[in-house]
Amino acid sequence: MARKQARRRKPKATKKIKMPTIRIGRIVAPLVAVGVVFATYQLSLTMLDRTITSIEISGPFQRVTALQIEEAIGDEIDVGFVAADLDSLQDRIVALPWIDEARVARRWPSRISITVTEQVPAAVWGESGLLNTRGELFVSEARHTPAELPRLSGPDDRSAVVAKRYLDVRDRLIPVGLDLRRVHLDARGSWQMTLNNGIEIRLGRRNVAARTNLFLDVVADIITSRSKEIDYVDMRYGNGFTIGWNGGPNTPVNSPKTSKQEMLALRGRD
To answer: How far apart (Å, rounded) are the C-alpha atoms in residues 236 and 251?
Structure first.
C-alpha cells in the first residue's frame, strides 16, 4: 500500500506594516519660507536703518536743558534710526530730575522727536524736598525751595497721604478766605496744621477725619472773623475743641453740634 506523502504546510504569509511616508519637501519648504521671510526682514531693516541725523526736543526747559537730555540718551541713539529702542529712550529721559513725562517718536527718514513735560512743584517736603501736584516726591534735596510754597512734612512713605489731606483741607478753606501754610504728620500719626495767618490747628491722631470736618464746618468761621485774636485751636477732644486766645483764657466748646446762637456768644468771649 503506497504511503501518502505528507503535504507540507505552507508558511503563513506575514503582514507588512506600511509606515506613512513623509515627503522631505513638505518639511523643508515651510522652513525655507520662514528663513526667506526672516532674511528679507533683516535685510529690510539693514537697508532702512540709518544713522539718526537729528534730534528734535521740545518742552518748557525751565529746569532741564536740551543738552542734558541729549547726554542722557547719547549711547542709545548710536544704534541707528530703526534699531533705537524708544521705550528705553523714554525711561532715560524720565529718570532725569524735574522731568515728569516724555514722549519719543520716529520721524522719517532719520529724525527722533522728543517732547518733555517738567515737574510742577506744589509743596516743599521736609527741609528741601519737593512734591508735585500728585503728592509725589520728585526731588529729595532741592538747591532752592520757593518761599511761596506750603510746607509739608512727615514720614517719607506718607508724603502722598499728607499731600492729599493738605489739598482736601485747602480746597474747603479757600472759599472762606483762609489757606494752609503747613501740614505736619509726626511719627506717632499725630496731625498738626498751620494756617497762612499763623494760627495752629491741633488735630491729634484719633478721629482725624471727624475732627477735620468739625474744624472746617464750625471753627473756620470763627477764625475768619477773629483771626488776629486766636493763637491756636485744639481739636483733640472727644466731643469738642478749645480755642486759645492771644493774651486771654482758653474757650472750650463741649459739643460739636453747637448752635449758631451759642457760637455767636462764643465769639464775644475773651
So the answer is: 14
| Fold match, 54-118 / 123-267 | no
What one-letter code names the amino acid at 68?
Answer: Q
Helices in the chain by DSSP H: which ranges? 24-48, 66-73, 86-94, 159-173, 208-214, 220-226, 260-267
Domain ranges (residues) in the chain = 54-118, 123-267
CA dist list (Å): 250 to 51, 98, 207, 242, 243: 76, 46, 22, 6, 6
Whole-model pTM: value is: 0.70
State the architecture of 123-267 in CATH terms. Answer: 3-Layer(aba) Sandwich (3.40)
Q: What percent of the chain has pLDDT over 70?
A: 74
* Exposed / middle / buried, residue 220 (Cβ in 10 Å: 0-12, 13-18, 19+): buried
Mean pLDDT for the chain overall: 83
State yes or no: cis peptide before 256, omega within 30 of 0: no
CATH architecture of 54-118: Roll (3.10)
